Automatic annotation (TrEMBL):
Keywords: Cell membrane, Membrane, Transmembrane, Transmembrane helix
Subcellular localization: Cell membrane
Disordered as annotated region, ranges: 391-421
TM ranges: 16-40, 46-67, 79-97, 167-185, 219-243, 249-270, 282-299, 305-327, 339-362, 368-386
Protein name in UniProt: MFS family permease
PANTHER family hit by this protein: INTEGRAL MEMBRANE EFFLUX PROTEIN-RELATED, STAPHYLOFERRIN A TRANSPORTER
Entry GO terms, CC: plasma membrane
Biased composition (Basic residues): 408-421
GO MF entry, a single one: transmembrane transporter activity
Originating species: Nocardiopsis metallicus
Membrane topology type: Multi-pass membrane protein
Pfam family, one: MFS_1
Top-level taxon of the source organism: Bacteria
Length: 421
């Protein structure tokens, strides 16, 4: 691991947040698997079973819109601890024998509503614990931990279901979530909240509106969400892609893991080999490189080329480190909790929408062409939204101190004409 990542991990408070994130993701994935199986066994409804996955994400929009100011108004440590304990209590309630399916789904909505508040407070805490150069590296480490824990979580949840009853599996998940909250409570410092005008709902919704009014922040949101919603199309269509290539479950698994493996490697390489300035300079080229290999799907590639293209493309995901730095720069300090809550919830929702849209497009065109279309759309999105971020991260001229742009400094050096000139 590079010295940059080691420097971030050497901060004791960040190590606590890192471990708490792993435990939290393991618990969430275990709950999703357990509920999906349990609800299907009780109701025989594929729709209700699928809702066990979907309802973990959709309520995040409500939480980010109406409750996000909690992450600014109150101390981050207290918010994180309470959010994790609430989620753990919800999971424990699901384990009560005989709980109706609709009650379980309602409890899942509560957990999903609390999630963006926790994410916003956690990101605000990272910004306080790490310096500006360390913030994107810290966020990257948390993403990699979450990605790895999510993959492991499916196996973990399956083992729990085999070794214990569904109720016991839910109680184990609740315990993991509670331990995550207690770790944060004991291992991080208490920092005061910020002054936030207005009531809870009004200040939350007002913060969301204000965030979208800021051009720089709006551009960062769009560059975060839209490409990510297109990047997941190959995962959403893994099963039909594999079927079209004549492959079976093993090929499906390889197509599903190609993206996560590539993204983890790409973020590690970007953090290890590039400085903050170099990551900024290479942000848009790397973002484009994420989608270029998807164009190979126009040729209906075989399994080896398809998996290789997805891994190589995902290496470009290292561009998100520079995007995280831009997010911190573009966010007013007094709005960090709300902005980070919106950014987190928006990413989850748009990725979910990307899965749905991929399936809809694949109803009309072959799956490999749908993946290629996503690659084209990703390139367009990067070109359109990436241009809008340029003024936000332009280098300053030593002479004029303005954002980069040769015309600005050249214009400022022109001699002024007199009134008669």
């Amino acid at each position: 691991m590079s010295s940059s990542f080691r420097r971030v991990l050497s901060v004791p408070e960040f190590r606590v947040l890192f471990l708490a994130e792993i435990l939290s993701v393991l618990a969430l994935v275990a709950v999703q698997i357990t509920l999906s199986v349990l609800i299907f066994e009780r109701t025989g409804s594929p729709l209700l079973s699928a809702l066990a996955f979907a309802l973990g994400f959709l309520p995040q929009l409500v939480g980010a819109s109406l409750l996000s100011s909690v992450a600014d108004r109150f101390p981050a440590r207290r918010v994180m601890v309470i959010a994790q304990l609430v989620s753990g209590a919800v999971m424990a309630c699901m384990a009560v024998p005989g709980t109706p399916a609709w009650v379980m789904l309602a409890l899942l909505v509560v957990s999903g509503t609390v999630a963006p508040v926790y994410s916003g407070a956690r990101s605000a805490a990272i910004a306080a614990v790490l310096d500006r150069d360390g913030f994107p590296l810290g966020r990257s480490l948390l993403r990699m931990a979450a990605q790895t824990a999510q993959i492991a979580g499916f196996s973990f949840g399956g083992v729990l279901m085999l070794a214990a009853s569904p109720a016991a599996a839910l109680l184990v998940a609740a315990a993991l979530m509670a331990v995550s909250g207690l770790l944060v409570g004991m291992g991080t410092r208490a920092r005061p909240g910020r002054e936030v005008a207005g009531g809870l709902v009004g200040s939350s919704w007002g913060g969301v509106r204000e965030a979208f009014r800021l051009p720089r922040l709006r551009a960062v949101f769009l560059l975060t969400w839209v490409p990510a919603s297109l990047f997941v199309w190959s995962e959403a269509l893994a099963a039909p892609l594999a079927a079209g290539m004549g492959g079976g479950p093993m090929l499906v698994a390889m197509l599903l893991t190609a993206g996560p493996v590539g993204t983890v490697a790409g973020e590690l390489l970007a953090g290890a080999l590039l400085t903050a300035e170099q990551r900024r300079r290479w942000m848009l080229p790397l973002a484009c490189a994420t989608f270029v290999p998807s164009l190979l799907f126009l040729l209906n590639p075989g399994p080896v080329l398809a998996v290789g293209a997805l891994v190589v493309g995902a290496l470009g995901y290292g561009y998100t480190l520079a995007l995280d730095a831009l997010l911190l720069e573009a966010t007013p300090e007094e709005m960090r909790g709300r902005v980070f809550s919106v950014a987190s919830a928006g990413l989850m929702i748009t990725q979910g929408a990307g899965f749905a849209l991929a399936g809809a497009v694949a109803e009309f065109v072959p799956p490999h062409l749908a993946v290629a279309l996503a690659g084209m759309g990703g390139l367009v999105a990067v070109a359109v939204f990436g241009r809008r971020t340029r003024p936000a991260h332009g280098r300053r001229s030593p002479r004029c101190g303005r954002p980069s742009g040769y015309w600005r400094c050249r214009r400022s050096r022109r001699p002024r004409r007199g009134p008669g000139g």
